[in-house]
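We close this part of the discussion by returning to an individual protein. The encoding preserves chain order, so positions in sequence and tokens coincide. The sequence in question and its structure tokens are set out directly beneath this paragraph:

===
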Amino acid sequence: MKPDPAVTTGSVAASSADYKFRVRDAVVGAQMLFVAFGALVLVPILTGLDPNVALFTAGVGTLIYQVVTKGRVPVFIASSFAFIAPISAGVKQWGIPGALCGLLGAGVVYLVVAGLIKARGIGFLQKILPPVVIGPVVMVIGLLLAPVGASMAMGKVEGCAIPAWQALLIAGVSLLTMILVSLRARGMLRLLPILCGIGAGYVMSVVLGHVNFSGIAAADWIALPRFTAPSWNLSAIVFMAPVALAPIIEHYGAVQAIGQITGRDYVANPGIHRCLFGDGVATGVAAMFGGPPCTTYSEVIGAVALTRAFNPAIMTWAAITGILLAFVGKVGAVLASIPAPVMGGIMTLLFGAIATVGLQTLVRAKEDLLEPRNMTIVSLILVCGIGGMVIGDRGSFALEGIGLAGILGIVLNLILPRARAEKCGGA
């Protein structure tokens, strides 16, 4: 792939990071963190993890990713939305330390897949995880979260005393603002719909008298994030590890996307196996500190395209900014003061969007869902994943939810015979 001439002009390098200090790079890097901030902190807010820890692990994870990929890929990695449902369920069932063990297992899945790609090429991944498997699994991720979003939008969650009509008003303001910004805003503002939605909902909550500022006033400016270490839990590993398959595919697509923007083939150099390995190590390290798994951020990729800031070193500044903010106690206190309906309004769209991405995967692949084999795979993934089916004992070892959906899809895809026409077409 030939580099875009626009990429190689000016002071910004596209092939590898240029670490010569420039104030402009530091400012642009901080801006990249700002673009990712809304989604980055949303995951820990929804799952019970510490947002300041998520900021820290996003920064550290991005630095690790840059080392593994030889400072060539201009991406920022942070909290993965694919893990919201399993983390939430895992925290309720095993507590935060047990859930973190499951996330550590998810990081290992990244490393295994990276090793297999290194040994056998990318074709094997496409064989065991075709669109007919990935599409419905991603849909399960979004649809499992739908009741959570609706409950928060209505204020029907523990600790929320906001009347239903006011809760829906706050949620509606958040949702409408996010939609309008994503559709009508221009320039950098268009990359911040989540932040704008949260801000508008927060202001409405203040107007209605539903924000408690005492925690913000009491919080220290400088404070250590609430780091938490994982504790061994095999059930959590089995429950969460298969979820890594969805962000692995997402990461592969993101690396291709940023390559098209910069004019570089990152799949070949530094290699998709290095990219996935870096993401896996970052996810494992995040779990060791109590942070959510890491994945590439499409918002930041969009910001890279808009600003033409192709130097990977800019992501170093974004990472450093995130690490520094993690130790500002006021940041966590402000995030903790956000009322549930504000986030509920945001989630009603975001969780539906996750399911839509899964559906789009099937549409783009032009899968015939009425063909018996495809219908069987998609139907069983959806019903078993969303319907609450559990295989095993939750007290010791159990498969359910997204983990069950992912493993079931892979197994069905490998053992079900393909249609005669499909066999002939592939011959």
Remarks:
- The mean pLDDT is 86.
- The radius of gyration is 21 Å.
- Strands lie at 77-79, 294-296, 390-393, 397-400.
- The first helix runs from residue 23 to 47.
